[in-house]
């Protein structure tokens, strides 16, 4: 019988040529670090609903969903129409527009803590701007982040985020304190160092909840702690925004951060993101017609594509649907069905492991089980890490692709409202077969 890799090479044979072409053009042959896979990535041609189709015309059930940006699935008609209509009226008007105003109003309707909003073009830009605002407001230098929490790829959030440190100056590394996800440890840090401007947190835990926080208690304690120490509390809702609830993690759990960063779903599949929060912090970006302030004190922000009209149109359409069409409830229901199916597959195949997750993101751990409620896993960080090393996640993703399903990073399923019961059940069957295939090859 052919191995998983042999089946992969045959199934995705036309991708080899595209990979070779890409290797002559891109560093490492790819344009995003998560697109690296072995022996080569599958090249996608088009997508619709819960499916994407590669250059060999394979239909693949998609759980990458635009790295989490597509809560309603691919090519949602309302969003496509909004983009098409605006593209014909101007893709960039080079000035203030009615689109950006309506876009901000749509965001604020769902996230009440945002007294002011500024748009950017990516999640990385948003966390960068939020940290600069926090330092400007407090007059302090250092940032506290958590071990393995990912906030983009700029220098201030790279330490211990699962990324290499090449090119990051030591001077910047000295301004970043990496804490364990432990409230007592954070309290000790804030008590001993009076030069901390902000604490930033990935709201559902490191790597979009792969290493879950024990919420809502952890976030509530963190909010109380930062307030007591006069430190800016930044909730990074790039992943959780508009997914854990229509208003994100903060609305789901009744929190009021000082600043919030958002991306992905906020732009309806287009490139776009935002920073929002308290007016007194956000207004540090405002011109005051005072030359000294405007040129020296103000927090500057450019960005050619901030709230460009096509992104704004897509974002408005997506946020209106989330507000009015029960999108989250459908995605969450399908996610619950998938989680139950995956856990049943572990049992039926007598493979140790489990699936866990909240809302519409499901994580799997191979080789370890626990007594968690299958919503928020309570295994220690190191145990979770040990269950899913890179070799195993790549093997699982490759096996799932051979069986017609693409997972996020080989360790998660990001579910959309376009996934229906039949698609979920096909996914469960594919997962069960993948477990069999991996066990037959000695991977499990």
UniProtKB/TrEMBL annotation:
It holds the Pfam family Aminotran_3. Keywords: Pyridoxal phosphate. The keyword Protein biosynthesis does not apply. PROSITE patterns: AA_TRANSFER_CLASS_3. The keyword Metal-binding does not apply. GO terms for molecular function: pyridoxal phosphate binding; transaminase activity. Its cofactor is pyridoxal 5'-phosphate. InterPro entries: Aminotrans_3, Aminotrans_3_PPA_site, PyrdxlP-dep_Trfase, PyrdxlP-dep_Trfase_major, PyrdxlP-dep_Trfase_small. Belongs to the class-III pyridoxal-phosphate-dependent aminotransferase family. This is Glutamate-1-semialdehyde 2,1-aminomutase. It comes from Geodia barretti (Barrett's horny sponge). The lineage of its organism: Eukaryota, Metazoa, Porifera, Demospongiae, Heteroscleromorpha.
């Amino acid at each position: 019988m052919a191995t998983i890799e042999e089946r992969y090479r045959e199934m995705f044979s036309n991708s080899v040529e595209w990979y070779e072409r890409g290797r002559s053009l891109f560093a490492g042959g790819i344009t995003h670090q998560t697109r690296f896979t072995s022996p080569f990535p599958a090249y996608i041609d088009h997508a619709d609903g819960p499916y994407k189709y590669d250059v060999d015309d394979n239909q693949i059930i998609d759980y990458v969903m635009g790295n989490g940006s597509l809560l309603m699935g691919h090519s949602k008609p309302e969003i496509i129409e909004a983009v098409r209509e605006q593209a014909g009226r101007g893709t960039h008007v080079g000035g203030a527009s009615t689109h950006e105003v309506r876009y901000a109003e749509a965001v604020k309707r769902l996230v009440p803590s945002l007294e002011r909003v500024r748009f950017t073009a990516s999640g990385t830009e948003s966390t960068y701007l939020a940290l600069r605002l926090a330092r400007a407001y407090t007059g302090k230098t250092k940032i506290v982040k958590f071990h393995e929490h990912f906030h983009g790829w700029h220098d201030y959030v790279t330490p211990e985020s699962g990324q290499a440190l090449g090119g990051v100056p030591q001077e910047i590394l000295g301004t970043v304190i990496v804490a364990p996800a432990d409230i007592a440890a954070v309290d000790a840090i804030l008590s001993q160092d009076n030069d901390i401007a902000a604490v930033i947190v990935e709201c559902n835990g490191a790597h979009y909840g792969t290493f879950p926080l024990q919420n809502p208690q952890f976030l509530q304690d963190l909010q109380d702690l930062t307030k007591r120490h006069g430190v800016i509390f930044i909730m990074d809702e790039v992943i959780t925004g508009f997914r854990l609830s229509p208003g994100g993690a903060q609305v789901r759990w009744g929190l009021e951060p000082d600043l919030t960063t958002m991306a992905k779903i906020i732009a309806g599949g287009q490139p776009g993101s935002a920073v929002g929060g308290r007016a007194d912090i956000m207004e540090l970006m405002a011109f005051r017609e005072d030359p000294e302030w405007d040129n020296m004190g103000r927090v500057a922000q450019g960005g050619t594509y901030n709230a460009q009209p096509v992104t704004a149109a897509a974002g408005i359409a997506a946020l209106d649907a989330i507000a009015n069409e029960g999108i989250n409830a459908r995605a969450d229901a399908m996610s619950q069905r998938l989680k139950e199916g995956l856990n049943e597959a572990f049992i039926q195949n007598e493979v140790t492991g489990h699936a866990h997750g909240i809302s519409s993101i499901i994580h799997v751990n191979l080789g370890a089980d626990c007594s968690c409620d299958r919503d928020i896993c309570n295994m220690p960080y190191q145990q979770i890490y040990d269950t899913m090393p890179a070799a195993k996640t790549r093997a699982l993703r490759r096996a799932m692709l051979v069986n017609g399903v693409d997972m996020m990073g080989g360790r998660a399923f990001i579910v959309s409202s376009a996934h229906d019961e039949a698609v979920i059940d096909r996914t469960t069957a594919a997962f069960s077969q993948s477990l069999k295939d991996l066990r037959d090859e000695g991977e499990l």
